[in-house]
Specification:
The chain is mostly helical and 301 residues long. The chain has one domain: Na+/H+ antiporter like fold, CATH 1.20.1530. 81% of the residues lie in helices and 0% in strands. The chain contains 15 helices and no strands. Helix 1 crosses helix 5, helix 2 packs across helix 9 and helix 14 packs antiparallel against helix 15. It starts with a helix and ends with a helix.
Length: 301
Amino acid sequence: MDAVNQVLILSIMMVIGIYARRKGFIDDRVEKGLSAILINITLPLMIINSFCLEFDKDIMGNAIKIFLYSIVIHLVLLVLSRYIYFKANDRKKPLLIFTTSFSNCAFMGYPVLNSIFGEIGVFYASIFTMVFTALVWTIGVSLFTGKISMKEASKSILKNPSIWAVIIGIVIFIGQIKLPYAINSTVKSVGTMTTPISMIIIGSMLCGSNIKEMIGDFSLYYLSIVRLILVPIATYFIMNMFNIDSMVVAICTLLMAMPGAVVGPVIALSAGGDGKYGSQCIFITTLLSVITIPLFIYLVR
């Protein structure tokens, strides 16, 4: 029942975002500003706060495993997706592969795991997302450009505030550095703003989409089944076949149960791809994830 209540809370926050958009409290400019605050301030601080834990060998061991599993999961999906969507046209295929391979593990993953597992959930999610970030800006970009530019990829990765937050967090965790009370309280308080801000932004994004254009596109339903059902189910059962720690399985499964990564349409647009179709991929998977995510929370618990 707790899991259902947590998802219900997140859903209500999304509804607030929809309401704010419809009333004009949020427009494109405000949405962009909120996204910048989320990515550059609240999310990094939330990550840093999650590393303020007492050092534990088991936690460190699980973190290393999650890092390795994240590599395997993403690479396998990138390969399999090429076959899953082999009939898709050249305009849609890159976005279908990208959306299937990369979930919204930051905007939605962190809030969901934080609401269920607390700070340890964010800690593990940040490790998982390190791999996500590296692959998005290398192989992910190459889906649209046809080549990997390590120079540009390195710049994008190094400019990502979440990567630096993880690095700072690792130093704090391993060195068992105790932050001064005022700094620690500020980091924690501002970090807790991540969940409501992210859900309000997603609600605003959903409100700004044209549903009529998507109703007749079968590829979006096919994508949703793969992204929201088949991928997390496969992750859960395959990992359990190898008797992997249940907490690690739960983290990986829930992160892969998230809708498509919101950065997909942005990369597609900058590379001359179909940003509009990319936005539709994000919209439909995000909308339907409100139904599917509670099912996977129930499954892993």
